[in-house]
Specification:
Number of strands: 8
Structural class: alpha+beta
Number of helices: 3
Distance between the termini: 37 Å
Helix content: 10-25%
Order of helices and strands: HEEEEEEEEHH
Strand content: 25-35%
Oligomer: single chain
Shape: globular
Low-confidence stretches: 1-12
Length: about 150
């Protein structure tokens, strides 16, 4: 196994698309690559992206969005601070601070490798995950595990 430098670990994982489609009326299904959003999004899954007609000016706390990074790759991460905007993958240790004009779409559905498509909406658990990610406290890991064990039985 090759050792990866710190810069390579921080680089966003690209989506296999060159540009958003011109029509934003329906979802575009895109395969997931990378592990930065595990356990929700796995490399064998596909996501349904609702593309905006232009860059979005805002995102909700906890919403999973599609943004264009400075090196022109597409990344799918959760919005942990909408006012900045600050993005972070659920399994990532690194935050992505991107200008708001780089947000181009929202993830609205998930097609797991096995099973029917799942509609994704931003709910209470998504906002909790975003707040815990933003806290950067050591206890956030065990707090998230406690929350899941209590509320997701």
């Amino acid at each position: 196994m090759e050792a990866r430098s710190a810069d390579e670990k921080r680089r966003p994982e690209p989506l296999p698309i060159a540009a958003p489609p011109s029509s934003s009326l329906e979802l575009t299904w895109v395969p997931v690559e990378g592990t930065s959003m595990r356990p929700l999004l796995r490399p064998s899954d596909r996501i349904g992206v609702h593309w905006a007609s232009g860059p979005l000016t805002e995102a909700q706390l906890g919403e999973i969005i599609v943004a264009r990074s400075p090196d022109r790759t597409w990344i799918v991460h959760r919005c942990v601070a909408p006012e900045v905007p600050l993005l972070k993958g659920d399994a990532s240790q690194v935050f992505d601070r991107l200008p708001s004009h780089t947000i181009w779409g929202q993830v609205r559905a998930l097609q797991p490798k096995c099973g029917p498509p799942i509609k994704l909406t931003t709910g209470r658990l998504d906002r909790w995950i975003a707040r815990l990610s933003r806290a950067r406290l050591r206890r956030s890991t065990w707090l998230l595990a406690w929350f899941r064990s209590r509320w997701l039985r």
